[in-house]
From TrEMBL:
GO terms for cellular component: cytoplasm. Pfam families: adh_short. The keyword Transport does not apply. The lineage of its organism: Eukaryota, Viridiplantae, Chlorophyta, core chlorophytes, Trebouxiophyceae. This is C-signal. GO terms for molecular function: oxidoreductase activity. InterPro entries: Fungal_SecMetab_SDRs, NAD(P)-bd_dom_sf, SDR_fam. Belongs to the short-chain dehydrogenases/reductases (SDR) family. Keywords: NADP, Oxidoreductase. It comes from the Eukaryota.
Amino acid sequence: MAVSDQQLVYVVTGASRGIGLEYVSQLLQRGHKVIAAARNPQKAKGLTSLAAKYGDALTLVTLDVADSATIKAAVASVSDSHPGGVDVLINNAGISGTIVKSSEQTEEEFRDILMINTLGPFLVTQAFLPLIRKGSKKQIVNISSTLGSIGEEAKMLGPEANEQLLVMASNQVGYRASKAALNAVSVALAVELKKEGITVTSQCPGWVDTDMGSSASDTLGIDRPPLDTPTSVAAQLKVIDGLTLEKSGTFFNHEGLVVLY
Ligand code: NDP
């Protein structure tokens, strides 16, 4: 087991499967303490088997990012179990919604996506701030998407567009808007919290073969996601390891390259 120099406390939301579960697994392998937050952690087989393997290093908490009561209860329980605070909060939970043309996005689903992908991580961050202030690393990472990059999307109006990119780009307006708004949340918090030594970034995991990542391929008949979860998360952790306060407010991809907002 590669134990890093310092044992840190990480909170990962949406830890039941996909990228979130892989974050939990790799952080535990590195010897850190992890609080895995999920809607139904006891029903997530991946999490319960990690709990059996790692014991006290892993704490499972119930947290639905769309339900403020569960956020408050989770923070109260983490305050008791980890009185020294939280070093890194990874706001990973998210939904893509149905893969439909932007012109066909329903109001109800658009609201749900904004709740889970934008307001949810904002409320989680607000609630965990007192614990992050106590921690030593003081990092907040919002898992975003290059699909939320207005700058990248706008390129599809110019000569860079090709048929496959146009099919992808004309879909998922709710998801794109939610991640663009999440990026705005990252920058607003980065500006306010810098004086407290708290780093806030947005980070895209790349296109990863998870339930979410593969749904676009299946629905649109396009290529499969090129990245598996271990590769994406190992790369993302390198980016997080390298974060400094000077980089606060930046939008990174999984390789640490800066993405346009
Ligand atoms: P998955 O669909 O595989 O997993 C999504 C996770 O989010 C699950 O753990 C799910 O929990 C959780 N979740 C959904 N709604 C809520 C909620 N209301 N409260 C708490 N947890 C919730 O997706 P990925 O692992 O692929 O995605 C993880 C993050 O990465 C997301 O933010 C996504 O937008 C982002 N991303 C993913 C990309 C990809 O290619 N996969 C590309 C770019 C960004 P449950 O099991 O309870 O449903």
